[in-house]
Amino acid sequence: MELHITFQGRKDLGEQLYRQLFDAIDSGRLAAGTQLPPTRLLATQLGVSRKTVADAYSALTYDNLLSGQVGRGTFVNARPSARPAVASSSPLASAAVVAMWRDMPMPLAHAAAQGRARYEFIGGASLKTQFPFDAWRRCTLHALRQFTRSRMLHGDPQGLPELREAVARHIGFARGVQAISDAVLITNGAQQALDLVARVLIEPGCKVVMEDPGYPPARLLFKAQRAEVIDVPVDAEGLQVDLIPDGTRLIYVTPSHQFPLGMPMSLARREALLARAGQLGAIIIEDDYDSEFRYQGPPTDSLQSLDRHGLVAYVGTFSKTLLPELRLGYAVLPAAILQAVKVAKQLSDWHTPTLSQWALAKFITEGELLKHVRRCFDVYSARRERILQRLDGDLAPWFKAVPATAGYHLTALCQRPLDLDLLVTVARQADVGLYPITPFFSQQPPVPGLLLGFGAIDLLDIDTALDRVREILLQLAPL
After folding, report:
1. What's the domain count of the chain?
2. Within this chain, do residues 357 and 383 fall inside the same structural domain, yes or no?
3. What span, in angstroms and rounded, lies between the C-alpha atoms of 254 and 238?
4. What CATH number did the domain enclosing 72 receive?
5. CA atoms within 13 A on the CB side of 204
6. Does 117 lie in the same domain as 155?
7. Residue 310 lies in domain
8. Same domain, 165 and 277
9. What distance separates the 2 farthest-apart alpha carbons in the chain?
10. CB burial class (10 A; 0-12, 13-18, 19+) of residue 340?
11. What is the pLDDT of residues 126-182, one digit of tens each?
12. Shortest CA distance to 330 belongs to which of 341, 348, 339, 318?
């Protein structure tokens, strides 16, 4: 790759070269540590004498912008500070839209490793120690072999056929979803699936119903599409269907493990929701984000498996069962919107990376996913049970768990007045990460409580962490 240098005429070439290199280093375009081409090579590329280049390098070295390393070459030195970005001198025509996106919060963004507490009850995260790296490495090598044999420049926007078939079989087995591979769309995580369905259904001002409390990234996504988001409260049976207004076009729910409270939607409420969607002609997004981990009672049918109107878009992810960094999700789409969403996917990013798709297809087909889920189930079940024992025991004066049968977080509601913000702050100082549920409420009065994720904390650490929390509670709200 050639260094970008342009000359204006053929006069003062050495000065022009010096000035362009100086500006490139000063602005940060040539970053610290960048190796410059040898003088002979750069002179050949620019069509100037080697002396011209050598003189420019020498002057920049004298200015402490470059340094030569014997046997290695010439490198850019670190600068004390980068030149500030130039502000726009004229008002931006799209300033209002830019401001809307700029000021939008980024909820549930996981902190960097250095910002984590020693004992983390963060939701939606798991420890990498449980990930089957050896099996995944073997599947990735298989994917590389398949990748090199492929003659396509781009993959199918709907996803690799082998992966769609594997996903359809897996969710049919694990969740009772009525799916054929032709109805499956592979996405970059569940969030992209939500985005694609929303963008083919939503027009500015149309009504979208969400659970309240509910999943903030979905709410913000729908609002960014200019929808009128209607926050409908939930009760012990789930979304209160009778409060869904006329004119609703899209309904977003988490029926298997309500986010964040955790209770499942009752069968009667599911049937009522499907009937109401049929009256409205509304699409339902069923976000089944972590229900593969079920701890008690018979499995509940997915909403999609009960659908007789072709109105449920079933969305799932492998971020919870595998790793969030893989960014692999899927949607089982009703026929009415399948082609439209496929087009939106192609226009958005063409297709999900094929290499990852081949690896996941092999991983599922060989039974590694089911093995991994079973191993994780034993781990999560033990952690969940220990947290419940503490909530039913010495922490009972302050918190009570919401009944939940699936997932890998629990919600504990406050049983007495408590300054949750202060609890979270002091717990962080004690190296315990706690997370209130109040940010998940929109229009409904927030109910004080904590979301206790148990994917990212070892079983042996739970008692140590909760002992620290109890000591803080005794100070904040004595018995």
Report:
1. 3
2. no
3. 9
4. 1.10.10.10
5. 0
6. no
7. 131-366
8. yes
9. 86
10. middle
11. 888 889 999 999 999 999 999 888 776 788 999 999 999 999 999 999 888 999 999
12. 318
Give the tens place of pLDDT for each residue, 273-302: 999 999 999 999 999 988 888 888 777 789
Residue 261 and residue 441: Cα distance in Å, rounded? 11
Length of the chain: 479
Same domain (yes/no): 347, 435 = no
Structure tokens at 99: 């401001």
The CATH number of the domain holding residue 194 is: 3.40.640.10
φ, ψ dihedrals at 284, nearest 5°: -105, 125
| Cα separations in angstroms, 207 against 21, 260, 273, 276, 427 | 56, 22, 16, 14, 40
The CB density around residue 165, as the number of other CB atoms within 10 Å, is: 18
- What percentage of the chain carries pLDDT values higher than 90? 79
Rounded to whole angstroms, the Cα distance separating 194 from 189 reads: 9
Type and span of the H or E element at 227? none
Please give the single-letter amino acid code of residue 398. W
Q: Three-class SS of residue 229?
A: strand
* 199 belongs to a structural domain: yes
Element (H, E) at 251: strand 248-253
* Amino acid sitting at position 259: F
Is residue 383 a contact partner of residue 454, using CB atoms and an 8 Å limit?
Answer: yes
Cα distances (angstroms) measured from residue 17 to each of 1, 62, 339: 18, 15, 54
A 10 A CB-CB count for 187 gives 27
Kindly state the helix (H) or strand (E) to which residue 85 belongs, with its residue range. Answer: none
- Average pLDDT of the chain is 92
Q: What is the C-alpha separation between 266 and 238, in angstroms, rounded?
A: 7
Assigned domain for 93 exists:
no
